[in-house]
């Protein structure tokens, strides 16, 4: 029986990925900060698929908690086969309005959270000469997103980290995969780091996010979960999922037009001195 560890596993994409692994008869450990949500998710997945699903409350920003998480997983199941890094925060607003605290909140979760789990799990993978690391990235890790500077910074870093690890670890039997979805229909606006030129701008950005995720064509967490599973089965290193392919393709062909379009989408009440 194989074992998967999924961070940010209490809801949204992480919960869908955990469910997909349970469906494939994996033993699953899910980690997140909210113990109540985590326990509910584990109970529901376990009931649905009749496979062990263990909740372990963890703040991925804390390396000690992450080390304990990985060690406890291996102690409970005797092995770890797949690490899925998913815990993350979205941010939007004019760059000059973000505080250093905002930057740390995003980078410490989105990037350092991934580094902490990889640092903890990698010795085990190397010792067993097999394993897989899946890093949930974003199309914002492939093309620059105006007004999403902290988020884009973290995702570009995850992309580079994943590519470097893949090049180094594939000869050692360890698959590293960075997955690039577009915006997904989840509750991420509720936890997003938002800033604005004024309170109205900040509120408008939140409403924009809420409106976007409510649109019927926005992809679902299950779409990402299926993409992750297929990437592992096909030994893919950089799958770009769904509508993210369109955005990436448009930027490759018409980068200036794409940037202009993205500025129009995310600018809101910020004023531009030149166009």
From TrEMBL:
MF GO annotations: oxidoreductase activity
UniProt-listed PROSITE patterns: ADH_SHORT (PS00061)
Entry-linked InterPro entries: NAD(P)-bd_dom_sf, Sc_DH/Rdtase_CS, SDR_fam
Entries under CDD domains matching the protein: SDR_c
Keywords: NADP, Oxidoreductase
Family statement: Belongs to the short-chain dehydrogenases/reductases (SDR) family.
Name of this chain's protein: Short-chain dehydrogenase
Native species: Phormidesmis priestleyi Ana
